[in-house]
Amino acid sequence: METPLQNIHKSWKDFLSWKMLFLNLGPVFLGVLFWGVILFHFGGNMVRIIEGFLPTSWDHYAHTNGLLPAMFLLAIKMFTYVLLLLSVLMLSLIGNLFISLFYTPVVICYLHSHDYTNLPLENFGDFMGCIQHFLKQFAYLCMFLVVCAPLYFIPIIGVFVSLIPHYFFFKNTISFDIGSSIYNQETYREVLRDYKVPHHKISIMAYLFSLIPIFNFFATLLQTIILARFFLDIKAQKSNVSQI
């Protein structure tokens, strides 16, 4: 079985192939257009909404005269824009993951035809099942974000608290979408149980691409390739063992 770095190296080559670049044009264009319009028209309002959640005492102190209040006001502005950027990254990933539901079968077929030709593929469920799973995971994400909302305004801690449920939403959604196109349901559950630690390792490495501003609009296709290779490698390994 390939190491995570070997997986990412091969996935990067697949990502830069003409077919995958062309496949990525639609989602990237829609993502950039959507968020460009949103930030251009509502960016100022979004900043004011986030500032409204900050303690009133902070605002009063920041608008008093003096060097320290001025520096504190600057820190508040920077913190607010960090929260706004984090929110945009999260929302863009959610949107990109939803769009990925439509092209994941194409990615799997591409990888299967190039590197896993003799590997029999299975599947369970259907496209509506993937959408239902996506909505279920999205509901869990929203509930967790609401419960933990007061923690977001604690510097550093708030960032990590918000990223944890975001990561699990990413991992559970994209893994189900890919796994349901490669395995039958029973085998998919066995893989999640038997390869829990390697699954987290490769998922975390793939997730980090989502945190790169601008590139996060392109990253979902690369992440899909990385996780698809991971599951296909496991299936190939199991297939070789069963043939011995």
Automatic annotation (TrEMBL):
User: Is the keyword RNA-binding in the record?
Assistant: no
Protein's UniProt keywords contain NADP: no
Spans traversing the lipid bilayer: 21-42, 78-103, 138-164, 204-232
Membrane topology reported for the UniProt record: Multi-pass membrane protein
What's in the keyword line of the UniProt record? Answer: Membrane, Transmembrane, Transmembrane helix
Localization recorded for this chain is: Membrane
Q: Name one Pfam family in it.
A: EI24
InterPro entries the record matches: CysZ/EI24
Question: Which superkingdom is the protein from?
Answer: Bacteria
Name of the protein described by the UniProt record: Sulfate Transporter CysZ
- From what organism does this protein derive? Helicobacter gastrocanis
